[in-house]
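ESCALATION

Customer reports they have been waiting on this structure for their group meeting. Please prioritize. Original submission:
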Amino acid sequence: MKRRQWLGLAFAMAAPPLAAARAQGSALVVFAAASLKNALDEIATAWSKEAGKPAPKLSYGASSALAKQLEQGAPADLFLSADTDWMDYVERKGLIKNGSRVNLLGNKIVLIAPRDSIVAVDIEPGFDLAKALAGGKLAMANVDAVPAGKYGKAALEKLGAWDGVKDKIAQAENVRAALLLVARGEAPLGIVYSTDAAAEANVKILGAFSADSHPPIIYPAAEIKDAKSADAKSFLDYLKSSKARPTFEKQGFTMLVKSSAST
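Update from on-call: job pushed to the front of the queue and completed.
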C-alpha cells in the first residue's frame, strides 16, 4: 500500500491538516504504544514549544497493530513500542534507521478493579483469580499479540492462575481499551500497566505482579528508516533527555537510558 493511502487510515485521531503538512514534509509523525499517551502528549507539547516546531502528530495503538501498519507502508518517523518483540519485528523488516534504536522506558503490570470494588486479591503463586472474578471477565489486551496482554498471560502462567481464567478473558485491542472495560464497570478485574491505572481515576490497583513473573517490560524507540521529517532525531533525543524524564517518571515509567541535559 502506498504511503499516501495510509494517511486517512493510520491517523484517524490526528488533526485534519496532517495530509497537507505531511505532503510538505514538515509534520513529525510518531507511532506509539497506547500506554504512552498521557506522558507523550505532554512531552510533545513541551518539545514543540521549546523547539519552535509544529506539534508532532501522535498515532496511538497496540504495538502489534502499529508494527503491521509500518510494514504495509504507513508513513511515520518514529516508532515507540511497548515491547522488544514488535520492535524486533520492524527491525527485521529493515524499517528502522541503523543505530537509532534505544531501550527507552520500563513499566510494571498490575491487577485493577473499579474504584468502588470491595474485592481483595493477594497476587502470589497459586492465587485463585477465578474466584475473585466471581463469574465476571478479566479485561486484558490481546494475550497473543499486544505486549500488555502477553506480559499478563506470562505472569498468570508463572503464578499458576492462567488455567483458571483462560476462558474468562475479555480481550481488548490495546491496553487502554482493557482499562476502559474496568473503569466502566464492564469487567470486575483487569491487567494493565501501572501507568495506565495511574491515569484513570475510576480504577484502583489491587496489587502488582512481581518483575520475575514475566519478561522484562521494555519500551524501545527508534527512527524509521524512511522518515520524512527532519525533526525525527531531535524529538527522539528529547525523549531521552533530562527534560522528558520528569514527565515519564510522573506517569510511573522508569527511564532506562542515561538522560542528557539537552536535545
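Sent to customer with the following note: Residues 37-51 form the longest helix (15 residues).
Escalation resolved.
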